[in-house]
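Run log // design_07
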């Protein structure tokens, strides 16, 4: 017999929901976005470390040093310092936003119901989901190219397919990604744990291959590509903001993973060990490999897939492409499919289950890459490149997510004081349908960021967009809750038995 009222129990700081009919019959609930049971929280610090190693070692990370030197006018040393500092900075919202997921076992969209409302949470969820689908399409393009080069190293007939072979590779890799996520969180944990040591070995092997062909002293001494005499600070902080934007999306939806952590200590230690150094070292490898590429293959090549594709040995190409496929798969499944899968379910949990949400993610990602796929098939001629999409739209779009991160941290730690009504998050009678404080606090920084694009006097607001957005969003949200304190206190008070 199903209980009428849900009960919440606590086990060594972890809260678990015994769902009654009040939750089970709610339109805001389904099994996939329900709080994880304590017995399901099996990820220790090494699993979370492996998650970050698997997500960080990917083609976009490899190209970050080149992006900072070419587009932001930094020297190699300044670029690598910006990458390291950015990933230390982004650890703060990542770790803080992970707390609620670990304590209550809830995913990102359910946590957002506290700060944006039970229905209103769908707005930031869809903003997050769109950028994830964009990244999913781009990573799938890299993975598809790796499959094409892998099969091309085994068969001259396949190699002769050219762009058509890349499209087939894209679709094969697309299906493989969806299959992994459909198998659930344990499948992702297994993939990340398996791939992490392999990816570290790949990085070491590439470094051994490149080092004899590059002078690190000359590389570090290369002058910056910015106006002579220009102050380094503006260029450096603009680059720093862009690098923070690289993981701005994950700083929001980290509860999607921390809900499986064994403890707060495991999620904190795992992230501290796994993220900053991996990002720094693989970006540094990209800088070294790009500098060595003229000696290695006769021309400057800025991404590892094409660089390895220039190797004349089919055996080494096949092996390297196989490992790059694993690397891209481990990044794509965790970083770019899990979040939109949960986000799409949040729209209508009774109608959209995990399978439907995974397929929605796949088809949106496919649609966003249709332009590039048609070019490869020779059906479309266009100057718009995948690299320009990656360097401009996605990084700029990600920087607008700062206010959401600030609002989430302030809501959980300062407004709710780390106390949520776990059953109430899945019903319509505790939290408001639309929390307008969250929307006001989000809209003002975003509007100012957009307006600053047309003003030289306020260009700093855009250049430091993630920092200014997250700080201002959090401050406005806190101020609104102070002014409307009675309402905030009423909503924050748990209604279920803790």
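design_07 sequence
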């Amino acid at each position: 017999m199903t209980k009428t009222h849900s009960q919440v129990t606590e086990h060594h700081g972890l809260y678990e929901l015994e769902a009654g009919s009040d939750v089970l019959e709610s339109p805001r609930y389904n099994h996939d976005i329900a709080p994880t049971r304590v017995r399901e929280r099996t990820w220790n610090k090494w699993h979370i470390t492996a998650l970050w190693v698997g997500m960080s070692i990917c083609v976009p990370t490899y190209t970050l040093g080149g992006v900072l030197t070419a587009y932001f006018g930094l020297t190699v040393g300044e670029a690598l310092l910006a990458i390291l500092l950015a990933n230390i900075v982004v650890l703060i919202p990542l770790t803080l936003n992970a707390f609620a997921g670990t304590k209550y076992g809830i995913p990102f969209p359910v946590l957002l119901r506290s700060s944006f409302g039970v229905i209103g949470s769908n707005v930031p969820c869809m903003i997050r989901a769109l950028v994830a689908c964009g990244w999913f399409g781009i990573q799938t393009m890299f993975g598809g190219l790796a499959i094409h080069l892998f099969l091309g190293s085994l068969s001259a007939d396949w190699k002769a397919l050219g762009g058509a072979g890349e499209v087939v590779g894209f679709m094969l890799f697309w299906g493989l990604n969806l299959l992994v996520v459909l198998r659930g969180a344990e499948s992702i944990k297994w993939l990340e744990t398996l791939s992490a040591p392999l990816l570290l070995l790949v990085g070491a092997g590439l470094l051994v291959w490149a080092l004899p062909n590059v002078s690190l002293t000359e590389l570090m001494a290369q002058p910056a590509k910015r106006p002579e005499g220009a102050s380094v600070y503006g260029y450096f902080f603009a680059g720093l903001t862009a690098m923070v934007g690289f993981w701005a999306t994950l700083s929001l939806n980290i509860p999607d993973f921390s809900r499986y952590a064994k403890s707060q200590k495991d999620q904190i230690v795992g992230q501290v060990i796994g993220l900053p150094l991996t990002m720094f070292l693989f970006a540094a490898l990209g800088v070294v490999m790009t500098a060595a590429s003229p000696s290695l293959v006769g021309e400057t090549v800025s991404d590892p897939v094409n660089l390895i594709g220039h190797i004349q040995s089919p055996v080494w190409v096949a092996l390297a492409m196989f490992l790059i496929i694993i690397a891209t798969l481990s990044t794509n499944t965790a970083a770019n499919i899990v979040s939109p899968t949960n986000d799409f379910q949040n729209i209508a949990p009774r109608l959209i289950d995990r399978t439907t949400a995974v397929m929605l993610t796949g088809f949106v990602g496919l649609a966003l890459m249709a332009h590039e796929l048609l070019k490869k098939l020779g059906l479309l001629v266009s100057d718009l490149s995948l690299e320009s999409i990656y360097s401009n739209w996605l990084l700029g779009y990600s920087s607008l997510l700062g206010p959401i991160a600030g609002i989430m941290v302030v809501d959980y730690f300062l407004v709710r004081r780390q106390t949520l009504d776990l059953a109430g998050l899945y019903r319509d009678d505790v939290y408001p349908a639309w929390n307008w404080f969250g929307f006001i606090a989000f809209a003002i920084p975003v509007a100012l960021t957009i307006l600053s694009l047309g003003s030289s006097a306020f260009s700093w607001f855009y250049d430091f967009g993630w920092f200014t957005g997250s700080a201002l969003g959090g401050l406005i949200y806190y101020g609104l809750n102070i002014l409307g304190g009675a309402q905030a206190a009423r909503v924050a008070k748990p209604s279920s038995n803790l």
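The domain at 41-398 is CATH 1.10.4160.10 (Hydantoin permease).
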